[in-house]
């Protein structure tokens, strides 16, 4: 396909694969088509590959949007022995494509997958609010495609818990209740404790180096007054890195799906600098315990970090729910 040609134009490749059309100049959202990076050989020991038929494809797709540092310079071949900080950056660029390993060296995403990635990113970052309608025709116009790929993209988002489809009403951004948010965090606490036990029992030097670089990045972001959501994104990526190093596909599927559903709320709860500093301190304590082989402390800190995150999210959501009543009073 010639660069810049809209998907759905005559001559588009068979099978629905290709790149999205040019972003309309009048819109600030959706963003342009997600960039694709070659998964580096050096990361094979840091991330466990998954089957190309993995049902949770959207985990990788949304991670594309969270990897904000992809530039042309990032797409060049990385050194044979990258520094830990560089390894983290390369991980952020490559992790999205591990779910597609086996298709091609540089995988091509279907049009519905590309749309789902960008709409999902807008949901996670709060550009599309809970309960907001996902109008098929409006999205089709924005992406320069027919309604068919948009409909398929919405089904992907529904499978991941980011969209809800109502008969005769259409799709809306999923609006979780306070109780549902509590339940998801309770489940995440239990699953991440399993992850912590597995990591403590078996982890590679590459994983430890990447985690160390990630914690250093979190500490830097925790000192910035307005980090623009980068802290929440980096924390999410480190959590996914850990679960994928457990070599347990079903555990990975469950945790990544649950993490995506709560990530949009983490943006809100981690906005205050004090909250980010407290979270970064727990990441550092956990890393120190892991490096010195203190399994009990590492597991306890990992659990505490997620529990505190859940409490902070519930507290912020409760405060937001009470604000309209205060204004009326």
UniProtKB/TrEMBL annotation:
<dbReference type="InterPro" id="IPR008920">
    <property type="entry name" value="TF_FadR/GntR_C"/>
</dbReference>
<dbReference type="InterPro" id="IPR011711">
    <property type="entry name" value="GntR_C"/>
</dbReference>
<feature type="compositionally biased region" description="Low complexity">
    <location>
        <begin position="1"/>
        <end position="12"/>
    </location>
</feature>
<dbReference type="InterPro" id="IPR000524">
    <property type="entry name" value="Tscrpt_reg_HTH_GntR"/>
</dbReference>
<feature type="domain" description="HTH gntR-type">
    <location>
        <begin position="109"/>
        <end position="176"/>
    </location>
</feature>
<dbReference type="Pfam" id="PF00392">
    <property type="entry name" value="GntR"/>
</dbReference>
<dbReference type="GO" id="GO:0003700">
    <property type="term" value="F:DNA-binding transcription factor activity"/>
</dbReference>
<dbReference type="GO" id="GO:0003677">
    <property type="term" value="F:DNA binding"/>
</dbReference>
<dbReference type="Pfam" id="PF07729">
    <property type="entry name" value="FCD"/>
</dbReference>
<dbReference type="InterPro" id="IPR036388">
    <property type="entry name" value="WH-like_DNA-bd_sf"/>
</dbReference>
<keyword id="KW-0804">Transcription</keyword>
<keyword id="KW-0805">Transcription regulation</keyword>
<feature type="region of interest" description="Disordered">
    <location>
        <begin position="1"/>
        <end position="40"/>
    </location>
</feature>
<keyword id="KW-0238">DNA-binding</keyword>
<dbReference type="InterPro" id="IPR036390">
    <property type="entry name" value="WH_DNA-bd_sf"/>
</dbReference>
<protein>
    <recommendedName>
        <fullName>HTH gntR-type domain-containing protein</fullName>
    </recommendedName>
</protein>
């Amino acid at each position: 396909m010639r660069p810049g040609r809209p998907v759905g134009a005559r001559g588009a490749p068979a099978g629905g694969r290709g790149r999205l059309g040019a972003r309309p100049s009048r819109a600030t959202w959706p963003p342009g088509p997600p960039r694709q990076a070659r998964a580096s050989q050096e990361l094979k020991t840091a991330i466990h590959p998954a089957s190309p038929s993995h049902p949770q494809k959207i985990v990788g797709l949304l991670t594309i949007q969270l990897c904000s540092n992809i530039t042309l310079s990032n797409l060049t071949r990385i050194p044979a022995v990258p520094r830990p900080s560089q390894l983290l950056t390369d991980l952020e660029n490559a992790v999205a494509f591990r779910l597609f390993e086996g298709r091609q060296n540089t995988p091509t995403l279907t049009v519905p997958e590309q749309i789902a990635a960008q709409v999902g990113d807008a949901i996670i970052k709060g550009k599309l609010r809970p309960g907001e309608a996902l109008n098929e025709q409006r999205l089709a116009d924005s992406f320069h495609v027919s309604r068919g790929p948009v409909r398929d993209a919405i089904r992907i988002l529904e499978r991941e818990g980011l969209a809800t489809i109502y008969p005769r009403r259409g799709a809306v951004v999923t609006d979780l209740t306070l109780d549902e948010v509590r339940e998801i965090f309770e489940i995440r606490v239990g699953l991440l404790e399993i992850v912590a036990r597995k990591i403590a029992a078996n982890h590679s030097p590459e994983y430890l180096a990447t985690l160390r670089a990630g914690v250093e990045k979190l500490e830097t972001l925790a000192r910035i007054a307005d980090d623009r959501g980068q802290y929440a994104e980096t924390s999410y990526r480190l959590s996914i890195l850990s679960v994928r190093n457990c070599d347990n596909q079903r555990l990975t599927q469950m945790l990544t799906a649950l993490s995506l559903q709560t990530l949009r709320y983490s943006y809100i709860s981690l906005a205050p600098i004090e909250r980010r500093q407290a979270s970064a301190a727990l990441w550092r304590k956990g890393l120190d315990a892991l490096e010195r082989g203190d399994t009990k402390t590492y597991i306890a800190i990992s659990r505490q970090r997620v529990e505190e995150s859940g409490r902070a999210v519930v507290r912020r959501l409760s405060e937001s729910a009470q604000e309209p009543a205060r204004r009326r009073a």
